[in-house]
Each structure stands twice: as structure tokens, then as C-alpha cells.
Amino acid sequence: MASLADPILRRRKSRKGQGADFIQKIAMVLAVLLVGAAIFAPLLTPFDPLQQSLLARLRPPLGFERYAAGHIAGTDELGRDVLSRSLYGLRLTLALAFAGAVIGLVIGGLLGLVAGLRRGWAEDVIMSLVDMQIAIPFTLVALLVLALMGSSLTVLIFVLGIAGWEQYARIVRGEVRRIAAQPYLEAARTAGAGPFYTAWRHVLPNLVSPLVVQFTLALSNIVILESTLSFLGLGVQPPQPSLGSMVGLGRDYMPTAPWIVLTPAALIVALTFTVQILGDWLRDRADVRLRER
């Protein structure tokens, strides 16, 4: 019976693998297109994203009546080109997400390294801060900080940077404690290696794989957080376009001009989908146990 069932199981696993590979290929193509569109937005946009034309306000996209020439995705309530604003908004959203993920990586990585190497009171304090960050919904914290300190880009980047640092800290602390029990690390200490040399030479190279995976997944969460804050009016401020602020400003025109919201909303969905799929793919490639299944 086992010999008859094995080919069937292998075929099922092969079909699942082919389906997963197809989705990953789509995600990779989308990632190239989205990053390329963000980088080359000044060359791809047909209009200035801040240029207003009240004579062309609320014009529908290509293929509908009252279409304004050149405005492929239509115009908003001030006559600004939706496609141009969406591409510039994608550019700003990606830049903010990347900056926030880097800040979170640095803060969480350093604190996790200290907690894993030092132990004692330093570990207790750091892990208590991690538990507090996990226990409190961060969206509420972000809303409070932005309401008190203002909605400048500097404050917004700071808020996005401290979102998710606890995940890096937990990962790094766990990996450091695992690595610290390895014989080669004990040998390095016996040979007289100091804590900084040990961390740089033996610990950090083993942290690259899990940190890259977490960084990728954190990008998606920060994109959603930035879009939420901008949608609520506490993120990127007008007239500077971001995907979340465009959705927020266009929600009042949904019954009569839904195209104002559809383009930036579609980019948010595509961006989060792409990053999540690539993050899962990186996790599977980095985890030996998952790769062997």
C-alpha cells in the first residue's frame, strides 16, 4: 500500500510546488515592476503630480465618456493626474517603508544582540520592553505620537522605525543564545576573543538569513501602517501624494469618481501581496527544515 501511495503523494507535492513557483514568479515580476515604477516615476509620469487643472477635474479614465486626453487613469477633485500621483505616491511609500524597516532592524538588532550576549539585568530590561511593545497595539501608539508631535516626515519616519523592532530583538536574542552554546564559540572565548570580536566574527554572519526574512516581512507591515496613518490624515500631508493619503482623500468621491481610489488601492494591494509572497519564499529558502519537506 505504501508503494502505491508514494507516487500519488509525490505527484500532489509536485503540483503544489508548481503552483507555489508560479505565484512566486508572479510576485517577482510584480516586485520588479513596482520598484522600477517607483525609481523611474519622474520619467514615467505624464504630468506633474501637483499640477492642478479645475477644468479637467473628476475626469474618468481612458475608455469612458468625458475622458481627458493624456489622463489614462483619470483625474481627481482638483484636476490632478491620478496615475502620476499614484506613481509618486508609490515612490514615497516605498521609501518610507524601507527607511522604517532599516531603523527597526538597527534598533532591534542591537538590543537583541545585547540581550543575548550580556544576559542579566540588561536582558531583563530589554525583554520587558519587547513584551510591552507586543502587548500594546502599535497603531494606537503611532496615532498618539503623531497627534502630539505633529505629522512631519521626520516624526513619521521615527514612528515607522520603532514599529516592529521587537521582532528583530526576539529573533536576534534567540539566535545569539543558540549560537552561544556552540563549541566553536566556546573555543573562541577560550582563545581570548573579546565580546565585540565574537559578535562580529561569529554571531552576526549567522544572523543574516533570519534578519533578511524578517526585514522583508516588516516592509509589508510598514506599508500597511503608513497607508493607515496617511488615510487617517496623520501621515503624509497634502499636497504631497502617498498611496494611503490618496485613498483617504478620495473616499468622499467613491460614489461618483471611484477611479481616484482604485489606482492607489490597487498599488497597495499589489505591493503588500508581493512583499508577503517574497518574504515567505525567503523564509522557506532560509529554513532548512521547511526546504526539506
From TrEMBL:
Protein name per the record: ABC transporter permease
GO cellular component, one term: plasma membrane
GO biological process assignments: transmembrane transport
Primary residence: membrane
Cell location: Cell membrane
Membrane-topology annotation of the record: Multi-pass membrane protein
Keywords: Cell membrane, Membrane, Transmembrane, Transmembrane helix, Transport
Family: Belongs to the binding-protein-dependent transport system permease family.
Pfam family, one: OppC_N
PANTHER family: OLIGOPEPTIDE TRANSPORT SYSTEM PERMEASE PROTEIN APPC (PTHR43386), PEPTIDE ABC TRANSPORTER PERMEASE PROTEIN (PTHR43386:SF25)
InterPro entries per UniProt: BP-dependent_transpt_permease (IPR050366), MetI-like (IPR000515), MetI-like_sf (IPR035906), OppC_N (IPR025966)
ABC transmembrane type-1 domain: residues covered: 90-279
Transmembrane segments: 22-44, 92-117, 138-165, 257-279
Domain of life: Bacteria
